[in-house]
Write a structure and sequence with these properties.
Layout: H1 3-11, E1 14-17, E2 20-23, H2 36-43, H3 48-54, H4 59-65, E3 73-75, H5 88-99, E4 105-109, H6 115-124, E5 130-134, E6 156-160, H7 168-174, E7 183-187, H8 206-212, E8 218-222, H9 229-238, E9 244-246, H10 258-264, E10 270-272, H11 280-283, E11 295-297, H12 305-312, E12 320-322, H13 331-340, E13 348-350, H14 359-369, E14 375-377, H15 386-392, E15 401-404, E16 414-415, H16 416-426, E17 432-435, E18 442-443, H17 448-458, E19 464-467, H18 475-478
Parallel strand pairs: 3-4, 4-5, 5-6, 6-7, 7-8, 8-9, 9-10, 10-11, 11-12, 12-13, 13-14, 14-15, 15-17, 16-18, 17-19
Antiparallel strand pairs: 1-2
Protein name: F-box domain-containing protein
GO biological process, one term: positive regulation of protein ubiquitination
InterPro entries: F-box-like_dom_sf (IPR036047), F-box_dom (IPR001810), LRR_dom_sf (IPR032675)
Length: 486
């Protein structure tokens, strides 16, 4: 029974009190009597697809559903949970009637990116500050020769690049409108690239783009197969306010301009280089002790042990480190890092699939720094079992994110009930919990239901619980946990 059915039942109830009859305090309460501002607040929790369905209920709901305050953030990409707009005429009407000055963020697919749409957004949506343009499926662009207007207050721009379509004709038209950009995302086609690529196209002229965006604080170049060190050098030469640079899965980045980048970008705090082709010789030349880096991701790179020791022992302010899937990350690296004292500010650590780290070295590190960690990932390692976790969980009392286990079959069993109970008792602040062990290694007991109850009652901040186990008695209780889980 939902809340409105419950109200209807309550409204019809008559109670006996001291021999007299009394109506329920909810008598006469119906959704029609709720004020418009309350309905508007309720609608704000719905997706736009659901809001459109609500608009068909009655005239009053239709008026509320079309309130521009519900249309501040709009996605028109139906394949990613957005709305489907059947024609350009329909979109132009929406921009004029429904979006207007309230619109702050919009996502447009390739078929809706035309000069008329961009003109309307520039003219009718003066407060538009965030935009995503998805060209990723483009085989041909619209004609932008008549493009004379573009939103001028953009602080955030995300462009999903096409695999083969050159964007320079479009970009040339918008350069004069985007000099206020602070956050730029260029998303490449990394997932579509084949192992033997015949030819790589530079579909966006990064060197011209950097000249048009001098105020960038965040630059994310994700999975772009033509991006190399020269492009990093170009951005660093013009964007003096740069705070975050991400070049994840840009395989041509080797780090040859890393020294220059950190010398120029004194405000740089976040450097993400997951899946790049970094070479140790270049990183050994960097003056790490003089930079302001707080977040570093070198996952799945081929850095040597010498390079890792040199880098970590000279980075004084590191708060987040992701360095998994690196053969060179071994016990000597962890030991040298601890002896340098640099992990004193660390709050998050991800060492996924670091097979050359021993259980003893990890234990010593966590004994010294585990109490300060908000996030810890030790997944993908067969030698890290629940016995280590049981030992260190009392230390991880400030943890908000915990990632445990490996999908590989183990020679030992994982006692899930005891592990869950220990997490509930020692980690009251946990918000995300992942158990990645193979289901065949998990062992349950009659206390499974109690373990789930314990974690539900004691971990009140838990928002995401990922469990990869076989159906068991606890699954019914899992459904009660108010968190998204896979």
């Amino acid at each position: 029974m939902d809340v409105w059915d419950q109200l209807a039942v309550e409204a019809s109830q008559v109670y006996l009190t001291d021999g007299t009859t009394a109506k329920s305090p909810f008598a006469g309460t119906t959704i029609e009597k709720l004020p418009d501002k309350v309905l508007l607040h309720i609608f704000s929790y719905l997706s736009h697809k659901e809001i459109c369905r609500m608009a068909r209920v009655c005239k009053r709901w239709r008026i509320i559903a079309y309130d521009t305050r519900l249309w501040k953030n709009v996605s028109l990409r139906p394949e990613i949970s957005g709305l489907h707009v059947g024609s350009l005429e329909s979109l132009l009407a929406l921009i004029s009637v429904r979006f207007g000055p309230s619109l702050r963020y919009i996502e447009l697919p390739i078929e809706l990116i035309t000069h008329t749409v961009l003109h309307e957004l520039a003219n009718k949506c003066p407060n538009l500050t965030h935009m995503l343009l998805d060209f990723s499926t483009a085989m041909q662009l619209h004609d932008f020769s008549e493009l004379q207007a573009f939103p001028t207050k953009l602080k955030y721009l995300c462009i999903c690049l096409s695999e083969v379509i050159f964007m320079e004709g479009f970009m040339r038209k918008i350069y004069n409108f985007i000099n206020g950009l602070e956050i730029l995302h260029l998303i490449g086609t990394y997932e579509k690239v084949e192992e033997e690529e015949e030819e790589v196209y530079e579909v966006v002229n990064v060197h011209k783009l950097k000249s048009a965006t001098p105020n960038l604080r965040v630059i994310n170049l994700y999975g772009i197969n033509f991006v190399d060190d020269s492009h990093i050098d170009a951005f660093s030469s013009n964007c003096i306010q740069l705070e975050c640079l991400a070049v994840n899965y840009c395989s041509k980045v080797v780090g040859s301009t890393m020294k220059t980048l950190l010398q120029r970008s004194r405000r740089l705090k976040c450097l993400l280089m997951n899946g790049t082709s970094l070479q140790s010789e270049y990183l050994l030349q960097v003056e790490w002790e003089k930079c302001s880096l707080q977040e570093l991701d070198v996952t799945a790179t081929d850095l040597s042990t010498e390079c890792l020791v040199d880098m970590l022992s000279r980075l004084p302010g590191l708060r987040f480190l992701s360095a998994g899937q690196i053969n060179g990350f071994n016990d000597s690296v962890l030991k040298a890092w601890m002896e340098s004292g640099n992990p004193r500010n660390l709050v998050a650590l991800d060492l996924d699939s670091s097979d050359n780290l021993s259980e003893e070295a990890i234990y010593k590190f966590l004994c010294k720094h585990g109490h300060q960690l908000w996030g810890l990932g030790l997944s993908g390692m067969t030698h890290i079992t629940d016995s280590l976790w049981q030992t260190v969980l009392p230390i991880l009392n400030n943890a908000k994110i915990l990632i445990l286990g490996t999908q590989e079959r183990l020679g030992v069993n994982i006692l899930v009930d005891q592990l869950m109970d220990s997490i509930a008792k020692n980690c009251p602040n946990v918000e995300r919990l992942e158990l990645r062990w193979d289901p065949d290694n998990l062992r349950f007991s009659d206390k499974s239901q109690k373990a789930i109850d314990t974690i539900r009652v004691k971990c009140l901040k838990l928002k995401c619980l990922c469990l990869r186990w076989k159906p068991c008695v606890a699954l019914e209780k899992i459904q009660d946990i108010k968190s998204a889980h896979k």
